[in-house]
Amino acid sequence: MVLGQVGMVYSDYFLLEWCSSSSSSSASSNERLLGVYALLVFGTVVLAYVRTASFFRASLKASSTLHSRMLLKVVKAPMSWFHR
């Protein structure tokens, strides 16, 4: 989670430095910088996907466990509890 945030901030910082550098850079230098920026953005997207998938799996497991435990408690409850 923190790594994804660091990647996002660093890619913004990298873009800021690239834009504020001299505009007389050669085309090959700009292509190299564009490649580095693309890799930073791609890494950030991958980390965001991993974070989302992990959260989804953890939430699904937690809700499944909670439902199973609650159903078991209701099924095992004495009949007198339902007649109150």
- Separation, N- and C-terminal Cα atoms: 48 Å
Number of strands: 0
**Approximate shape:** rod-shaped
The unreliable regions are: none
Mean pLDDT equals 88
Q: Give the radius of gyration.
A: 25 Å
Task: Summarize this structure as a short list of keywords or feature phrases.
single chain; 84 residues; mainly alpha
What does this structure look like?
This protein has 84 residues and is mostly helical. The protein has one domain. 86% of the residues lie in helices and 0% in strands. Helix 1 packs antiparallel against helix 2. It is rod-shaped and about 85 Å long.
Blueprint (SSEs and pairs):
Elements: H1 2-20, H2 27-75, H3 79-82
Summarize the structure.
By secondary structure, this protein is mostly helical. It has helices spanning 2-20, 27-75, 79-82.
